[in-house]
Hints:
Order of helices and strands: HHHHHHHHHHHHHH
Number of strands: 0
Strand content: under 5%
Structural class: mainly alpha
CATH superfamily: MetI-like
Distance between the termini: 22 Å
Number of helices: 14
Mean pLDDT: 81
CATH architecture: Orthogonal Bundle
Amino acid sequence: xxxxxxxxxxxxxxxxxxxxxxxxxxxxxxxxxxxxxxxxxxxxxxxxxxxxxxxxxxxxxxxxxxxxxxxxxxxxxxxxxxxxxxxxxxxxxxxxxxxxxxxxxxxxxxxxxxxxxxxxxxxxxxxxxxxxxxxxxxxxxxxxxxxxxxxxxxxxxxxxxxxxxxxxxxxxxxxxxxxxxxxxxxxxxxxxxxxxxxxxxxxxxxxxxxxxxxxxxxxxxxxxxxxxxxxxxxxxxxxxxxxxxxxxxxxxxxxxxxxxxxxxxxxxxxxxxxxxxxxxxxxxxx
Length: 286
């Protein structure tokens, strides 16, 4: 019966219908790629092309002056460029790893351990997803001030560990792990942490790879609100200071946009398969 249904569906497919669907999807893909193509071309445009109206999508006379100008401006700053880069990389790497570790541990407990008030805690987590991140700026600032962590590396990194989205995502996937699998691990002598690390985490790999992508995208472009020393500023803050120079630095702005886009784009390219698996799994209902 299944084979017969499959043949009927295959026989009713239209070649023209497939072509129209492909053309429609291609059009959507080009529409979504348009901003990226425009930004990349702007990075290599000389100033006379940048101020054309209407603007050209593709660069006619490509140049590297925008990138060389960026290097020259950065070399004249009070703090070396690599200091800003180090701060950004440290914030992104430590914040991503820390958030993944703590959120996955908490998700494992909420999903697989009968703790008192677990449902209430998870309801509060879901409720917190409804609020913008800007709502937490003042409470977080007060907390960091009470802990005397303002203008320190700890004051920059600690707030990145408490995003509720990661906990929500990991908890939903942890619930899909069969209980007999975890019980078998504990019968074999594995403790709670070993069960979480060696059994649960490999089974939800697509979820935490997706979380890594989301965190990298958010933290790489993040402007910390609790650091004022020039030595603690990140690349987005340094770039915003450069752009304050006016329209003469429009070309440099294009180069900055490309540089800030590289890391999130590369990280997505290498993990896109897991992201797609996560999206597919989140839509499956048994």
